[in-house]
Amino acid sequence: MEQLKVGIIGLGRIGKIHAKNLIALADVALIMASDPDPQARDFATALGIPAVVEGFDPIFSNPDIEAVVICSPTDTHFECIEKAAAAGQHIFCEKPLDMTVEAIEKIVEIVTEAKVKLQVGFNRRFDVHFARIRSLVEAGAVGETHILKITSRDPGPPPISYIERSGGLFLDMTIHDFDMARFIVGSEVKEVFAIGRVRVDQAIGAAGDVDTAIVNLTFEDGTIATIDNSRKASYGYDQRLEIFGSKGMAHIGNQQADSHTVYNADGIHQPVLLDFFLERYEQAYQREIQDFVAAIRAGKSVPVDAHDALMATKIGMAAWRSVKENRPVALSEI
Amino acid sequence: MEQLKVGIIGLGRIGKIHAKNLIALADVALIMASDPDPQARDFATALGIPAVVEGFDPIFSNPDIEAVVICSPTDTHFECIEKAAAAGQHIFCEKPLDMTVEAIEKIVEIVTEAKVKLQVGFNRRFDVHFARIRSLVEAGAVGETHILKITSRDPGPPPISYIERSGGLFLDMTIHDFDMARFIVGSEVKEVFAIGRVRVDQAIGAAGDVDTAIVNLTFEDGTIATIDNSRKASYGYDQRLEIFGSKGMAHIGNQQADSHTVYNADGIHQPVLLDFFLERYEQAYQREIQDFVAAIRAGKSVPVDAHDALMATKIGMAAWRSVKENRPVALSEI
Amino acid sequence: MEQLKVGIIGLGRIGKIHAKNLIALADVALIMASDPDPQARDFATALGIPAVVEGFDPIFSNPDIEAVVICSPTDTHFECIEKAAAAGQHIFCEKPLDMTVEAIEKIVEIVTEAKVKLQVGFNRRFDVHFARIRSLVEAGAVGETHILKITSRDPGPPPISYIERSGGLFLDMTIHDFDMARFIVGSEVKEVFAIGRVRVDQAIGAAGDVDTAIVNLTFEDGTIATIDNSRKASYGYDQRLEIFGSKGMAHIGNQQADSHTVYNADGIHQPVLLDFFLERYEQAYQREIQDFVAAIRAGKSVPVDAHDALMATKIGMAAWRSVKENRPVALSEI
Amino acid sequence: MEQLKVGIIGLGRIGKIHAKNLIALADVALIMASDPDPQARDFATALGIPAVVEGFDPIFSNPDIEAVVICSPTDTHFECIEKAAAAGQHIFCEKPLDMTVEAIEKIVEIVTEAKVKLQVGFNRRFDVHFARIRSLVEAGAVGETHILKITSRDPGPPPISYIERSGGLFLDMTIHDFDMARFIVGSEVKEVFAIGRVRVDQAIGAAGDVDTAIVNLTFEDGTIATIDNSRKASYGYDQRLEIFGSKGMAHIGNQQADSHTVYNADGIHQPVLLDFFLERYEQAYQREIQDFVAAIRAGKSVPVDAHDALMATKIGMAAWRSVKENRPVALSEI
C-alpha cells in the first residue's frame, strides 16, 4: 500500500503529539515539517522527518504532499487553510479554526470549492468512552433523548496571557463540550442560556473572562442540556457525561492513572483523576489522526469538519452574549 | 420521662407512615387520630390509637394534645394550622403548606405570634446521605461552594388528576430540590432560570404541566446550581447531588434495594434503583418526626420551618414564570 | 388475627434486640421475659412486657406461651431447649446451640421427637443482600457453582475472656461463614483445610486461638470454597461474598453508614464500613424473627434449624483439627 | 545516545508484540530476527528489521548483538540461553524458562557465571495497577501483610494440545499468580496447599489437567495467601488482587474496554471485562521491555530474573504434588 504523504505545520505541544502519532502509522509518510523555532525543528529532525523547514510555504509548494496537519497559532490558520486548499491538499487543523464566525464561514466555502477535506481537532469525539456513548444513543439504548449533562472541569486555569487571546472560557474550553453535545445528541442547538462567575481567580475576571459556568442548551429535537465548567478542580481533570432518555440513561465517568483502592481507618481511598487532556485523551489524539487518514484513503467524509467548528463557535458566541445580557440567546441571532 | 401527647390529622398514605413512626417512639403518646374515611379510622384503631374521630376539631379542642401532625389534603392545611396555633399546639405539617405565597406568609405570621413551632415535611433533609453532605459543606470539606448539581427523577408520573391540583412539576416535585439546594448551600436564592418540556406524556402538557426540566439557581453567596428533573426514569427513583467548591467535591449517588452485582457473558449488571420515595426515604421519615419531637422537648427551633416552605414555594413560582416568559426571574419579583 | 404468645429468655445485648423486634410485630404478644440481672428485668418492664421473672422455669410452665426465644448463655441452651420442647413450645435459639457435636445431635433428636420447631440464629441468611445471592444461585444465574469466596473480617477482636469460652475463631466467627457457604452453595461440605495464624494479638495465641485464617471447603457437588478471616480490619466490618460458576459470577460488597464520596487534592474518599454486626445485620435480625413467627403460623419448616447448626459446628471442628494436624480433614471424621 | 543492539528469536504471537515494542524504543536498534516460519520472517522484514534469518545461530554469532529476546518454543529456551550467555549477550526470555526445576537451576548457574543479565517475562509485575499495589505495600500503606487474595480467571481454556505440553494449570497459568504473590508480599513461600477440579471441560481432565483451582500459600514472613483460578470466566479476563494487613487493605479491580454504564428498566449495566492478556497487559509488555533495556544501560539488576522463575516453578510443582497427594507440600520438598 502506497503511503499517504503528509506535511505538518507547527511543532508546539500539540504538534509534537500529532507528529509522533503520524510517524507511528504504517500507511503514512510524514515527509516535511515546518516551524519557526529551531528547537522544534531539531525535534522534527530527531524524529527522522526527512525535510524540516522554517517557513510554511515549502509545505504548500511541495507537489508530493497530499495532506497537511496544521498546529500553528490560531491567527495563522486561515492563511494556511487557504494555501493548502489552493494546493489541493487535505487539511487537519487544530481547534479553533479561527476566532470569528465570518472567517470560519469563509473557510467552509474555501474547502468546499477546492474539494479538499478539512477535519478539525475536536479530539474528544475520538475518545473510546464518549464515542461509545454516541453509538449507544444511535443504537437507541436510551430511547428518545431528553436530558444531556456534561461536566467539564480543568485541574487548573491557563496563564492569563492565554486567556486574553483565547476568546475566554466558552470559546477555549466549553467549545469542546458544545461540540460533544452536538455529537452525542445528533441535533442542532436552538438556544443558549449561560451563567458565568469569577470564583477561582479575580485576575481571570480582570482579563474579562469567567472561570465557573453553567450553560444550558435547547436542541431542535427537544433535548435539553446542562453543562457545568470550572477552571480549577482540585482533584484533577473532571470529564463526565450522561444522556437520559425515554428508555434509560448512558453515563461515562472519569479515568484514573491507576485504579487501586486503599482501605484504612480513615476510610476508603482512590487516587485523583488523570491530570489533564494530554493524558486523558492520549488515545483520542491517535484515533483522530488515524480516522483523518482513513477518510482520505477511502474518499469519505471526515468525521468532524469546518461546519462542526462553525456551530460550536456560534454556540460559544451565544453563551457569551447570554452571560452579558442575562437572557437566553437564540443561535439564529449569531 | 413524660411522653409527648400527639394527635394526627389525616391517615392517607403519608399519614399512615407518620402514625407508625410516632407509635414507635418511646417518648411519644399518639393519643388521637382523625380522618373522614372509615377505613383510615379502622387502621388507626388497629394501631392502638385510643381516640379515633371523624372530624378535625376534636384534635384542636383536646387540651392534652401538645403537638399535631397534619397530613390532610393541602387545601385544609391553612385552617388546621390556624386552629392548632390558636390551641397552642406545636405543628408538623406535610408539604406543601399551601399553594399560595400569600397564605404561607400568613402562616409564618400566625405561628410566630402564637409562639408554636411549625415544622414542614421536607423529608429529604433528614436522609442520612444528604444530611452528611450538608455537614461536610459546613465543615469546609469542599471549601467555598461554586457549583451545585441535583438530579431528581421520578420512576413514573403521578395521575393527571394529581397534576391538575399540585401546582405542577416545579411545585410538587422540584420544590424538594429547591429546599435541598438551600439546605446544602446555606444561602438564599437570588434568581431562577428554568427550561420545561413535555417529553414523557402529552397528557401532562394538556394539563398545563411539563415533565422534563432543567432549572438554574443563582445564590446570594455566588454559588450557581443546576437541577434536572424528569417525571419518568425507566431505571427507578434517581436522586443524586454533588457540590463542587474551591477545595473539592462531595457527592451522593443512588441507593438500591440490594447491592448485588452479576457478571455474565452480557456484561456486569446491578439491580434498578429503589422504586420511589417511600422506600428511598423510609428512614428520613422516621428521623424527621424524631427531630420534631426532640425540638419540642428541648425548646429549640425545628430544623425546617414555614420560612423554608415559603422560600421553596417562591423559587417554584419563579421557575414557572421563567418557563412562561423564557427569561431569568429574580426571586424579588415573586 | 390471634397474636402468637412468646416468652424470651435472656436479655443481654442480643436478647434486647430480639425483644424490641418481637414487640414491633403486630402478630406477636411478648408476654413474659426472664433474666437473672435486675437491670435487664427493668429494661423488660420498661418495654411493657407484662410478666418479667428472674428464673427461666416460669417461661416453660406457662401454658399460654407458644414459642420461646432463647438468648441466655450458651451453657444453658441445652437445658432450655429440653424444657421448652417438653412444654411443646417452639424454639428460636441463638447460636451456638451448644459447644459439642454430641449435644447438638441430641438437640436434633429432642425437637424431632417433641415435634416442635427449632430455629437457630444464623442471622446472615436473612440479610437481604446475601439472601439475594442465594436466590440468584437457585435461579441459575451463575450456572453450576464452581468457586465460592467469602471474606469475613471483624473490626476488632473480642475480649480474651470471651475467646477462652467461645470455641475460638472457627466456632465463634467462621461458623457464620460455614453456614453461609452451605446456604449459598446448597450442598454439603465433604472436606476442610484450614490455615490459622496469630497476627493481630499474641494474647489471642496465648488463649489457644488464632486471629487470621484461610479455610478451604470442598462440597459434595464439586464446588470449592475459600474463606478468609481476620479478627481486626482497620476499616470496619468487612463482609463480602462471591459465587462463580459456569455462567458467571454473583457478588455482594460491603455496606457503609452513608454512601458519600469526597473528591479533593489527595484523592477520592469514602467513609469506612459499618462498624459491626449489630449495625450491618440490623434488618437481618428483624427478618429472622419475622420468618420464625411466620413458619410457626404457617406450620412450615423454619428456614434454618438444628441440623444446620450441627453441620456448621462439625465444619468448625474439622477446621480446628486441620490447623492442628496441618492436613485436610474429612467431615466424616468428626 | 548509542542504541542498544538487539536480536529477537521467535516471532509467534508474543514475539511479534515484543518486536513492535522494541522498534518503538528510540534507544534500541532491533537488528536481527530469527524464525523458521517464512510468514513470520516476512512480518519481520515488513517491520524494517535489517537482517531476518531462519535459524537461531546467526543471532548468537553476531558480535554486534548486545541482547537477545527469546520468544521461541519452551523446549528451545535452554539451548538459546546457553548460547546467548556464551556469546555474552544479555537475555530476555519468555516464561516458562523451562519445564524442569533442574534446568532452571542450571540456567541460574549459567547466567551467573557468564555475568549476563537474564530477565524472565513475568509481564504482570509491570502492569501499572499491580506495580502500584507493590509500592503501596513497600511504603507501609497496609502495615504488616496478613492475607493476600488473588483471583485469576481466563476467558476461555487454551487448546488441549497446548495443555498437553504446558505443564498444566499450575505451571502455565497460576505460575503468574505465584510470581505476583512473591512480588507483592516480598517474602518467600514455605508451603503450598492446592485443590484442583475439572468443572469446565472433561477433555481437560482427560489431558491430565484441572481447570478450576484454589491454591493457598504460606510465606516465611507469616503472610497467608489464597489464589483462585478458572480456565473459563464467561464475563472476560478476571484479574484482581487484594492485600490485607495490620493497617488496612489495598485492592486492584478489573479493567474494561470502556467504562460506560447503561441504566434501564432491567437494571444497571456495564460492559464485560477486557478479553484477555494481550489487551489487559498491553502496556505491561511495553514496560517490561523498557525496563529490561534500562537495566542493561544502567548496569543494574533486571527487575525479575531466573531465580524468580525458579521459585514460581517450584511453587507450581508443589501445587501439583499437593493436589495429587491431598496434603500441604513444603517448598523444601521440591
Can you give a write-up of this model?
Four copies of one chain form a homotetramer. With 334 residues, chain A is an alpha/beta fold. Helices cover 39% and strands 25% of the residues of chain A. Chain A is built from 13 helices and 15 strands. In chain A, the strands form three sheets. Chain A has a seven-stranded mixed sheet with strand order 12-11-7-10-9-8-15. Chain A has a six-stranded parallel sheet with strand order 3-2-1-4-5-6, sandwiched between helices. A two-stranded antiparallel sheet of chain A has the order 13-14. In chain A, strand 13 and strand 14 form a beta hairpin. The radius of gyration of chain A is 20 Å and the shape is globular. The A-B interface holds A 143-144, 146-147, 149, 151, 153, 193, 195, 197, 199-200, 212-214, 216, 218, 222, 224-226, 228, 230, 232-235, 238, 244, 246-249, 326-328 and B 143-144, 146-147, 149, 151, 153, 193, 195, 197, 199-200, 212-214, 216, 218, 222, 224-226, 228, 230, 232-235, 238, 244, 246-249, 326-328.
Helices, strands, pairings?
The structure is a homotetramer of 334-residue chains.
Chain A (H helix, E strand, L loop, with lengths): L3 E6 L3 H11 L4 E7 L3 H9 L4 E3 L3 H4 L6 E4 L3 H13 L3 E4 L7 H14 L3 E3 L7 H11 L6 E9 L6 H7 L2 H4 L1 H12 L3 E9 L4 H5 L5 E8 L4 E7 L7 E8 L2 E5 L7 E5 L2 E4 L6 H4 L1 H17 L7 H20 L3 E2 L4
Work out the largest interface and the residue count of each chain. Answer: A-B, 36 and 36 residues
One letter per element, helices H and strands E, the order of chain A comes to EHEHEHEHEHEHEHHHEHEEEEEEHHHE
Q: Name the structural class of chain A.
A: alpha/beta
Main sheet: strand order of chain A: 12-11-7-10-9-8-15
Portion of residues in beta strands of chain A equals 25-35%
Residues in helix, % of chain A: 25-40%
Radius of gyration of chain A from CA coordinates: 20 Å
